[in-house]
Amino acid sequence: MSNFTQHRLVLLSRGRLELTYQTKSGYQLDDLLGFAERINPKRAFLFVSKVLGRHIPVAPDQMRSAFECLAEQICDNLPQPILVFGMAETAVGLSAGVHQTLQRRYPNAILLNSTRHAQAGDLLTTFREDHSHASQHLIYQSDDLAIRQQILSAKTLIMVDDEASTGKTCQNLVNALIQAGLNQLEQVHLATLVDWSLGQVSSNPFSQQRFFRHHLLAGQWIWTDTAHNHNIQMPNVATTKAGSQPLLPTGNWGRKPTLNSTEFLPNLLKNLYKQLENIDKCHLKRVLVLGSNEFVWLPFLLAECLADDWQINVKFAALTRSPIAIDNQTTNNQTTNKQATNSQTAVKSVLSFTDNYGLGMTNFVYNVDFDAWDLVILCIETPSDSVDSLWQNLAEQGKVLILAEG
């Protein structure tokens, strides 16, 4: 482990990104991140995680290692009850992985993710993620009165996200939860893969709670726009409406508080093996499992099971509503003063299609070459006939297996 300060310059078409960073774990910058350009007027650049299994296919064991390493940064003897909170959509799998690891020490910790999909049931609160392509987040109550009371009595909040800078989103969340009745909070922990607050004045933004930050890498960034103006037209992906397609029970977990993040995994595995009955598994050496939007944790567990059971090359990625540009970038590692030009960003390819929720919204999948895989398993939380014709055609060609309950 090293706190040696390093520097990186990333040049994108809309500007330059200057990074200063330190590592406190076994992870280096290139282990955790690549870079790309957002189709978003609010923030031009994107840190593309190499361990989340979202925009880049990742082996399940690499994802699991990152989940566990982040959870291990969080200290013992936390005041209980504990609420582990994950940010939709990017961090809902990360939060579940951190929660599952923490339950070895805190078995009664509750997992709750925000969502952008309106649900039946009572809202606990809402809050905003100001720089996001879809800034509004919904948080739902439990249907279980005992769990409701446990949440209201929470003394420790652990907010999990892929990265953080100012901590403003965490403040928005905490303020919303306190206004919703969580007035017994004593500690707030912000757990992120990368924390970009290095060099900022270390102050506690909360008057009544102790505040802690945990991360695998710490740094700071400076973004400078290029001189020419940019007319960025972002797709309309900010809705929090309920779509016309039903959310099936196996998929619709985590949007309401839960103690058990794996209870529907047997159903998903049963459905998969039933659909694989007519497939010659002997020829499957490379399998890609795709989650969809907020439905990523159970598909990740499925990918993990396949990798363990079949002993083959399995990787995981996910569909997303996040619009990313594909352009050229140049990177300069200032610790070696060697400049390298990369003809691609961390996002090498994109497919766009209509979402499977019945929202009429464009969704995307990045870095997926269907010819590179013997089988792609698309896991969805809506009925199987809800997917775009692109996926239906791929299924008819035998390149994709669509895994759903109906």
Structural class: alpha/beta
Whole-number mean pLDDT: 88
Largest sheet: 9 strands, mixed
How much of the residues is beta strand, in percent?
A: 25-35%
Segments where pLDDT lies below 50 for 5+ residues? Answer: 328-344
Q: What shape does the CA trace take?
A: globular
Percent helix among the residues? 10-25%
Task: Return the CATH topology of the domain at 264-324 and 344-404.
Answer: Rossmann fold
Strand order of the largest sheet: 6-5-9-10-11-2-1-15-16
Give me the number of helical elements: 8
Order of helices and strands: EEHEEHEHEEEHEHEEHEHEEEEEEEHE
* Named CATH architecture of the domain at 264-324 and 344-404: 3-Layer(aba) Sandwich
Gyration radius, rounded? 21 Å
Terminal-residue CA separation: 48 Å
- CATH class of the domain at 264-324 and 344-404 reads Alpha Beta
How many extended strands? 20
Structure description:
This protein has 406 residues and is α/β, with parallel strands linked by helices. It has a domain of 122 residues: Rossmann fold (3-Layer(aba) Sandwich), CATH 3.40.50. Helices cover 20% and strands 31% of the residues. It is built from eight helices and 20 strands. Strands 6-5-9-10-11-2-1-15-16 form a nine-stranded mixed beta sheet, sandwiched between helices. Strands 13-12-19-20 form a four-stranded parallel beta sheet. A three-stranded antiparallel beta sheet has the order 4-3-14. Helix 7 links the parallel strand 12 and strand 13. About 4% of the residues have low confidence. This is Phosphoribosyltransferase. Pfam families: PRTase_2, TRSP. It comes from Moraxella macacae 0408225.
